[in-house]
Write a structure and sequence with these properties.
Layout lengths: L1 E4 H7 L3 H9 L5 E3 L5 E5 L1 H5 L4 H6 L1 H23 L52 H11 L4 H8 L5 H6 L9 H12 L4 H6 L1
Antiparallel strand pairs: 1-3, 2-3
Helix pairs in contact: 2-5, 6-9
Length: 200
């Protein structure tokens, strides 16, 4: 079990709309970080059975309907416990009780608006996702632990082609490249320093 960005989770399983529907229904924990990226909590069983997403795509409309029904039930419960009358349907006028009506000194009454729905249960933010390493620090680590060419490093670490060349020009510092920087940092940290390899 671990946090994934919404884009990474989409690669593991269903579509973006399916993940958002699960978040709205309260079935998946989610939060948005300081860079505006949405993270979702992915269970081990979900990562291990990608074939199950086909069925999940089919029941996506049902999840949306269930989420809407939950919001309506929560609104009805609040009105029931507060003693407030149920809100009229849009465009429907409610008659005042017998013997009661607007007084002469009163202006037109504003219709009560429906209370805002409560946030879905289980969608509270969990622990913060891993921060992206500084590109300068990872490039310095590359000089320390990888003596070969940039392209050889990209092939060994599974990076996109010409990623390091563009990074040295300052073109790979955005939030969308954070996952690749973390991947490169983890690969370099798994290698011994170049001085130790030469001594061996």
């Amino acid at each position: 079990m671990m946090w994934h960005t919404l884009e990474d989770a989409t690669e593991l399983g269903p579509s973006r709309e399916a993940w958002l529907a699960r978040v709205e229904a309260g079935e998946v924990s989610s939060y948005v970080d300081a860079w505006g990226r949405r993270w979702v909590w992915v269970e081990v069983r979900e990562r291990a059975a990608p074939g199950a997403w086909a069925l999940e795509e089919e029941v996506l409309p049902l999840w949306r309907e269930v989420a809407a029904l939950r919001r309506e039930v929560l609104a009805l419960r609040r009105r029931a416990f507060s003693g407030a009358p149920a809100a009229a349907a849009p465009g429907e006028r409610t008659a005042p009780p017998a013997g009661e009506g607007p007084r002469a000194d009163e202006g037109p009454r504003a219709e009560a608006s429906s209370p805002a729905p409560r946030p879905a249960k289980g969608a509270a933010p969990g622990p913060a996702g891993p921060p992206a390493p500084a590109p300068e620090r990872v490039l310095a680590l590359r000089q320390e632990r990888w003596p070969d060419s940039d392209r050889a490093l990209e092939r060994a670490a599974g990076l996109p082609k010409a990623f390091l060349a563009k990074a040295k020009k300052g073109q790979r510092g955005g939030p969308r490249s954070a996952r690749t920087w973390r991947k490169l940092e983890a690969f370099l940290l798994s290698l011994p320093p170049a001085s130790q390899r030469q001594a061996a």
